[in-house]
Specification:
Largest sheet: 3 strands, antiparallel
GO molecular function: oxidoreductase activity
Enzyme class: oxidoreductase
EC number: 1.14.19.-
Helix content: 40-55%
Number of strands: 7
Strand content: 5-15%
Number of helices: 16
Radius of gyration: 23 Å
Protein name: Glycerolipid omega-3 fatty acid desaturase
Structural class: mainly alpha
Shape: globular
Organism: Nannochloropsis gaditana (strain CCMP526)
Length: about 450
């Protein structure tokens, strides 16, 4: 009944995919996508008959708004941050005997958490290497990436592949990698033990290294060249090389910490294995909170686009210096997902400020204070069981489902679900820019099976 200017909160709208990833691209046109009443108006509190009009900035507009310096990669600056993280870990290992002798178990508890946290920080540096934002030299990125990741038991090249595909298909129902999107059918197909494992917050200590990378849940093993993750001989050789680097690092760590003295194995457990579990907790928790929240949307084929998936990413502020020490991968993740091969971590804060300025008026920028990050992870990990809907999917209200309510239906069809419940038309205007068709090089089109979706990292 007449147009109404959109007010906050704003419903999420369509956009167009562009990426700086390793893609072959072709342009084609596509008409605007008209969402259903449930998706566009229901959650925003608009009444029936409301007409909503909104234009979302294109990715090229976002890139122009970001200072040019944010796309400049400095080899020296990247190496500095890598050495800084190694220095922090070295200092912790130097003081370990004193901590153990003078502060007992309480001191070791603090030491374990600090060591595991700085392992996580070092992983983020290797993460820059994998994206090519560490420097302009691919060979140097790969060398430094192996140096950072091998001691953490992360096979660099296999991780690089699955993580690149995650960025290229973020929030795609079937093509997103390392971040599973369970449907009701898949969830109910899990055993009671698997369901209990998924919702147990203690599982974050083993999900990444042991279940995802080693056992190959979801995407295939990252340490075995025979894994279905790899599609050609080159990738299998790369897997063997990265696994060998990881094994060499493991041997050096064993020899360096065991020392041939009595109690050497216990020292390895205390000085390496426990911090490695803490590292697992950090990477699992941070990546989960970057991509999961009550209002997260997941898109099926035909409804998904690169930029719609990217804008489901959440910037979370952890506070207490954690964001800066984590190289702002926590509170600068939206900008990172938009330009994942182009912006080094030390420019993410400036890039985020520019992106936020353009996206906030459209209601599509997500930032949340997550100082209670452990509590928030525990809450969401239990609460968000599976997504439901058609085309555009969202998490169900698990408590309501337990009481007998039906899962929500999110349809991209503006026609009524039944003749008795007609839906009003929704007017949507989109920025006029060609749609970029994404085609990953060497991307397998196989669908996830329930078994591969049983243990998300």
């Amino acid at each position: 009944k007449g147009k109404q200017q959109l007010a906050s909160p704003s419903p999420r709208k369509t956009a167009y995919p562009v990426t700086g990833g390793e893609l072959s691209i072709s342009e084609r046109s596509k008409p605007p996508i008209v969402h259903s009443l449930q998706h566009v108006l229901g959650s925003a509190g608009f009444s029936k008959g409301t007409m909503v009009e909104q234009t979302l900035p294109t990715l090229s507009q976002l890139k122009k708004a970001i200072p040019e310096k944010c796309f400049q990669k400095s080899l020296l600056r990247s190496v500095y941050y890598m050495l800084r993280d190694f220095a922090a870990l070295a200092a912790l290992y130097i003081i370990y005997p004193s901590v153990q002798a003078n502060f007992g178990l309480a001191g070791l508890f603090v030491w374990w958490n600090l060591a595991g946290f700085f392992m996580w920080c070092l992983f983020v540096i290797g993460h820059d290497c994998g994206h090519g934002s560490f420097s302009e030299y691919k060979w140097f990125n790969d060398v430094c990436g192996h140096i950072c990741h091998a001691p953490l038991m992360v096979p660099y090249w296999p991780w690089q592949k699955s993580h690149r595909l995650h960025h290229m298909y973020h929030n795609h129902l079937t093509k997103d990698m390392s971040h599973p999107w369970m449907t009701q059918e898949i969830f109910e197909d899990l055993t009671p033990f698997e369901q209990a494992l998924l919702e147990n917050p203690l599982s974050l200590f083993i999900k990444y290294t042991f279940l995802y990378l080693f056992a190959g849940k979801l995407d295939g093993s990252h340490v075995l060249p025979t894994s279905p993750l790899f599609s050609d001989t080159k990738e299998r050789i790369q897997c063997a090389v990265s696994t060998l680097c990881m094994l060499v690092a493991g041997v050096l760590i064993y020899v360096g910490l065991e020392g041939g003295a009595e109690g050497g194995l216990a020292r390895i457990g205390s000085m390496y294995l426990i911090p490695l579990l803490v590292f697992n907790a950090w990477i699992t928790m941070v990546t989960y909170l970057q991509h999961h929240d009550e209002d997260t949307k997941v898109y099926a084929e035909g409804e998904w686009s690169y930029i719609k998936g990217a804008l489901e990413t959440i910037d979370r502020e952890y506070g207490m210096g954690i964001d800066d020490l984590s190289h702002n991968i926590t509170d600068g993740h939206v900008a990172h997902h938009l330009f994942f091969t182009q912006i080094p971590h030390y420019h993410l804060k400036d890039a985020t400020a520019a992106v936020r300025q353009l996206l906030t008026p459209t209601g599509t920028y997500k930032k949340k204070q997550s100082w209670n990050f452990l509590g928030k992870f525990t809450e969401l990990n239990y609460k968000l069981k599976y997504v439901a809907g058609q085309g555009v999917l969202s998490y169900v209200d698990w408590e309501a489902i337990q009481k007998g309510a039906s899962p929500p239906v999110c349809s991209t069809d503006a026609s009524p679900a039944t003749p008795a419940a007609p839906l009003p038309k929704v007017a949507v205007t989109c920025a006029t820019e060609p749609l970029i068709a994404l085609e990953a090089k060497g991307r397998s089109t196989r669908k996830r099976s329930p078994a591969r979706s049983s243990s998300p990292p």
